[in-house]
Amino acid sequence: MSAATVKRPSGTAAIASLGLAILFVLSLFVGVGDMPLGRLLSDADALELLLVSRLPRTLAAILAGAGLAIAGLIMQTLARNRYVEPSTAGTAQSAELGILLATLLWPSASLALKSLAAGAAALLGTSVFLMTAHRLPPTQPFLVPLFGLVYGGVIGAAVTFIGWQADLLQYLAVWTNGDFSGVLRGRYELLWIGALMVAVAWFIADRLTIMTLGRDASVGLGLDYARMMQLGLLIVSIVSALGVVVVGMIPFVGLVVPNIVSRLMGDNLRGTLPVVALSGAALVLGCDILGRLIRYPYEIPVGTVMGVVGGFLFLWLLFRRPSHA
């Protein structure tokens, strides 16, 4: 292994960290409200704007982006297919169904209880997807994402029908399109649980790497395959459910970020997982800033911006062959 190969992962991580730091500072000062840097500490209104709105919004974008990118990476590992992520495998749609049912059956439920219901529904929906995906012929890798799109579409149609019958379509619009404009202090803290799930994923990264070899090879190497599958499902479900509950569905993050990082750094999850998290956070935060600037002083939801940017990135991944050193 050459010296360039050894330095490459650390260099990629440094670039991702620097980009995220720049976007973090920029996000604090982009918005309609006036927040002069020179009078930040002496102006009570500017300081309140920073602590109540701008900082929570920035942290929410970072936590959501990192969590969704890691959830996509784990989903691709569990399904052994690079073209799946929670929003294209029925996970996010199942989380929406769980929130909707919790809203109908218990209208006064807290955000934490709705998150619990969404997580349970996402866990069930993802389990069904993976059980079916593993039965599809491995020689046809595009069948898995196609099935995921159909599966998610069916669940999404059921959610829309129930929402229409219960006159809750306006609430569904909040959950189906990611938006950080309503994030304030006290409304995003559940996303820190997603950060905890990212830490758990890093702790089991070596075992997840072994799982990419398949069930037989993993068991032969002494890995408890069933237990790791359950833990991976739990991480994906919790992260996806929290994202849908707090900010809504943000597409493509878990699809394009792991694939781009994998092309740059390989498939060793211990080395790539931090870069995936940093890159996902930077991508979502960058799209949120872009949504604030395109039609300033109005905003475009981050889910809409991410749909366009992510679509271009996905097409680039499809049509550009990876370079082999």
TrEMBL record:
Keyword vocabulary terms for this entry: Cell membrane, Membrane, Transmembrane, Transmembrane helix, Transport
Segments traversing the membrane: 12-32, 58-75, 142-164, 190-210, 231-253, 273-291, 298-319
Lipid bilayer topology: Multi-pass membrane protein
InterPro entries: ABC_BtuC-like, ABC_transptr_permease_BtuC
Gene Ontology terms for molecular function: transmembrane transporter activity
Swiss-Prot/TrEMBL GO biological process terms: siderophore-iron import into cell
Compartments, as annotated in UniProt: Cell membrane
GO CC terms in record: plasma membrane
A Pfam short name: FecCD
Coiled-coil region: none
Chief place of localization: membrane
Domain of life: Bacteria
Protein family membership: Belongs to the binding-protein-dependent transport system permease family. FecCD subfamily.
Protein name (record): Iron complex transport system permease protein
